């Protein structure tokens, strides 16, 4: 039997970007079918302006937020942060990218949605693209050959939005502590924040060993 990992984050969260970095250190660690990844989203940046206001007012608040994010990312080797992020590129909300990722999941399945979520996160933090803009998101869908009438319909008819809101509520009910959180083996284990890849590896290996016994 495989081990399930539910990875919770907000697509605009700098800690979620670190979580992405940690996850990529695990690529190829286990054989196909041993681990099932499910990307799940939290609503932390639903109202970006309100969150940024904690840093001050106007442009100064965004610049301060960008500076703090840059300083934070500099502590992780191999993790990029585009200089335009928050200074010039300012998504208004994470709700739309979460909704589009959910539509990909509903139309193409979990694995494809996981890969697309990674691409959306890269587009923002690494490439400096405004993933809060629907035109940017549709460009990303086209780049990955995921754009289709049925997927766009899933977005416009409210099904993807409904599923996204349900996911937010489930995370609240499950008291997911924040972004990023790894829930392993149907919530038997929870890892939160700046988790070493070695800790995730040790936990998964232990679970897999128990399944083989």
From TrEMBL:
InterPro entries: DSBA-like_thioredoxin_dom (IPR001853), Thioredoxin-like_sf (IPR036249). It comes from the Bacteria. One of its GO terms (molecular function) is oxidoreductase activity. Coiled coil: none annotated. Gene3D superfamilies: Glutaredoxin (3.40.30.10). SUPFAM superfamilies: Thioredoxin-like. Residues 4-196 form the DSBA-like thioredoxin domain. This is DSBA-like thioredoxin domain-containing protein. It comes from Veronia pacifica.
């Amino acid at each position: 039997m495989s081990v399930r990992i539910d990875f919770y984050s907000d697509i605009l969260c700098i800690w979620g970007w670190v979580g992405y970095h940690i996850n990529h250190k695990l690529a190829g660690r286990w054989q196909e079918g041993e681990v099932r990844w499910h990307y799940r989203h939290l609503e932390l940046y639903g109202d970006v302006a309100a969150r940024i206001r904690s840093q001050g007012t106007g442009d100064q608040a965004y610049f301060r937020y960008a500076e703090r994010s840059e300083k934070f990312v500099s502590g992780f080797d191999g993790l990029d942060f585009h200089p335009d992020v928050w200074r010039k590129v300012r998504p208004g909300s994470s709700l739309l990218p979460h909704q589009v990722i959910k539509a990909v999941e509903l139309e193409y399945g979990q694995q494809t949605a996981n890969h697309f979520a990674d691409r959306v996160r890269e587009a923002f933090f690494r490439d400096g693209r405004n993933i809060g803009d629907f035109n940017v998101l549709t460009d990303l869908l086209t780049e990955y050959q995921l754009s289709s009438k049925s997927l766009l319909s899933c977005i416009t008819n409210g099904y993807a939005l409904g599923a996204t809101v349900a996911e937010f509520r489930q995370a609240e009910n499950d008291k997911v502590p924040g972004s990023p959180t790894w829930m392993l083996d149907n919530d038997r284990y929870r890892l939160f924040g700046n988790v070493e890849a070695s800790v995730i590896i040790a936990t998964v290996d232990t679970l897999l060993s128990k399944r083989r016994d």
